[in-house]
Amino acid sequence: MVRAAVLPAVSAPLEITGIELPEPGPGQVRVALAAAGVCHSDLSLSNGTMRVPVPAVLGHEGAGTVVAVGEGVGHVAPGDGVVLNWAPSCGSCHACVLGEVWLCANALNGAGAVHARRADDGSELHPGLNVAAFAEETVVPAGCVLPVPDGIPLTDAALLGCAVLTGYGAVHHSAKLREGETVAVFGAGGVGLAALQAARVAGASRIVAVDVSPQKEELARRAGATDYVVASENTAREIRALTGKQGVDAAIECVGRAATIRTAWESTRRGGRTTVVGIGGKDQQVTFNALELFHWGRTLSGCVYGNSDPARDLPVLAAHVREGRLDLSALVTERITLDGIPAAFDNMIAGKGGRALVVF
Q1: pLDDT-based confidence at residue 51 (cuts at 50, 70, 90)
Q2: What is the mean pLDDT of residues 86-101?
Q3: In the predicted model, what is the mean pLDDT of the chain?
Q4: Which of 127, 242, 259, 360 has its CA 20 to 30 A from that of 152?
């Protein structure tokens, strides 16, 4: 038996309880978690913004040590450190054939599988976003684990699995930020802080962080922000004032709210680029009129998992970490146990802090 954070039903409180995991079957890997990040996507799963089968063990950003492998697994062995990949690509769907593995049509097929059973009543549990990282141990398909790059501690490596891949990818793969350009990042949570660091790595000349909380300014500046704006109805005007009344070249929206998306778009220059990373609900409707779309010539694009290929991008990120360009510790504002996850959810709802990291 291992302890895990279980979502019994949509919008129900998380329960920290014992679960029974099976031994790894063919093509599966058992991992003892070292750390798991508490991501806003986990909150979106719990409140029904994103739909997966429940009851489920949540958690999708993690790293740990391989305990056992099933038949046919050859790329990792017991004792290896691994990063969990919650969106494994199938390699054969239309998106994968095009090389857009982050849009794999089959990436979340595993969410409907039976992952484990509750220790108290034997009821079936699903694996949330495939990997069920909010647990002391997990059993996942082999495609959901990637070797930890050399020189990266396991607890830090957990952040690479979502926050850093997403934030870095939004800047480098989606917005394609170039040296000397200006950028605004909306939302200074875990992904936003990673995006700020990525903008610094890209050589942006001005990096504006935007958040509703004045208390996050120090966090944002440590991550690379040159300017900090407390969100208000005047945010777009303030950002344009910081950029010679032109607006930024690119905006990265990490909140997922209609008003924030609209503000991010209005904050860019004519011909600017807005990348939407935040996951919003169906009720969040963003509107534009045809004339402004023509006049401003701006681009608005969605961004899934940072448009990243984890197998390709993890070694790149690790090199940035080893050479001091990315500081993973700057994303983490609290280290907690499994029992602290419900409070971490409350902090996200309240807009407090950066990334909470569960350390096992």
Answers
A1: confident
A2: 96
A3: 96
A4: 127
How do beta strands 61-69 and 81-84 pair?
Answer: antiparallel
Tell whether the torsion through CA atoms of 174, 179, 181 and 183 is positive or negative.
positive
User: Quick check: 227 pLDDT over 90?
Assistant: yes
Contact in structure between 314 and 293 (CB atoms under 8 Å): no
The reported pLDDT for the residue numbered 53 is: 93
E strand or H helix that includes residue 295 = helix 290-296
DSSP, residue by residue, 211-279: ES-GGGHHHHHHHT-SEEEE-STTHHHHHHHHTTTS-EEEEEE-S--HHHHHHHHHTEEEEEEEEE-S-
Average pLDDT for 321-348:
95
Helix-helix angle 258-266:235-242, to 10 degrees = 30
- For residues 270 and 247, the answer to whether their CB atoms sit within 8 Å is yes
* Residue 52 scores a pLDDT above 90: no
Structure tokens that stand for 36 in this block: 């798991």
Q: Are strands 182-186 and 248-253 parallel, antiparallel or unpaired?
A: parallel
Q: How far apart are CA 168 and CA 326, in angstroms?
A: 10
